[in-house]
Amino acid sequence: MSSQGAEQRAGRYIRQPAGYRAFSPAVLPPDPEIRIDSDLQVRLSQADRALGRLDGSIQTLPHPDLFVYMYVRKEAVLSSQIEGTQSSLQDVLAAEAKILDPDRPHDVEEVVGYIRAMNYGLSRLADLPVSVRLICEIHKQLLEGIARGSHLTPGEIRTSQNWIGSSGCNLNNATFVPPPPHEVAEHLSQLEKFLHTDARLPLLIKIGLAHAQFETIHPFLDGNGRVGRLLITFLLCEQKVLLKPVLYLSHFFKKHRQAYYDHLQAIRDHGVWEEWLMYFLRGVIDVSQQATETARRILNLRESHRRTITERLGRSAGNGHRVLEHLYEHPYVSVNEVKELIGTTYPAANDLVARMEEDGILREATGQSRNRRFVYDGYIRLFDEDQGDGE
What we know:
The protein is mainly α. The protein has two domains: 3-293, Fic-like fold (Orthogonal Bundle), CATH 1.10.3290; 313-390, Orthogonal Bundle (Arc Repressor Mutant, subunit A). The protein is 59% helix and 4% strand. The strands form two sheets. The protein has a three-stranded antiparallel sheet. It has a two-stranded antiparallel sheet with strand order 1-2. ATP binds at residues 83, 218, 222-229, 260-261.
């Protein structure tokens, strides 16, 4: 492949009437086709195995749907942090539990929007394939209700030119200028066609190509990175590679953020799709292994706390087990919620919560004497984004 051919393999920069150069991506799959050499083949096989182990490990958990709650929230926090939000997993869980905290970052609503978009998209997959229509619906869910989102046309493909670059840059000195608005609908249509008609490529290769292409098209005024990362999850679930959305790939992208941006730009400038795919598959492997380890630790934690409840709570053990299962989907709880859950009196619920606190299962989180909320700390720590690679 000639140097010029390589540089135009992913598309080309076109001078616009206003004087700036915008990138017009070539249709997928790339031409010349992806070279799956021995290194890429080995990494692809490793990624397939890692995903298979992850999916299997989740299926061994009792009531797998309970545990999806936290995997989704971890991915939401990390994906949003790539875009500059400060909210942590604890912030999001506390906000959802309606615990008032004046020091909580104001951008927690953006993470909650991501969670809403993911849950909405996963439910829509039962009736609607991954498509331009679904992508727009997800975008609307992501930005609707967010203070700064109202002027960013949630759910609508952009009708003006956007660009990527440092603060204060313009179209003439931006790092990257996506295709002009009149081309966007056609590029998205071609991407949708690629997703549903090209069966020659291995699925993970196809998903890696689709994510990069979506980020290059940059079809919205805001939220492109988050929607593009959601797209990975939806494609994995749609194709039944994962039965549950338990891959928080944004952990890898955030940890290697500059490499993420550099690889995407190298595709546009030099057509090096294979280098991006090696990076993408490395992320799938790393994060699948981390998420599998998290599943193992969930199982160990659950068994440990079930033993504690059985041994320590006597006649209240049955109710204790019901509360424990509830905590995996709602790790913050009040005495009133426990009362409703187990159908008992307030004093009995209060006594049960106090005993679970005494045994180190729950921790009081508000520091108040009234309207107290208790948190299942040990479970949240398994997902805490500050634990690095050992999570």
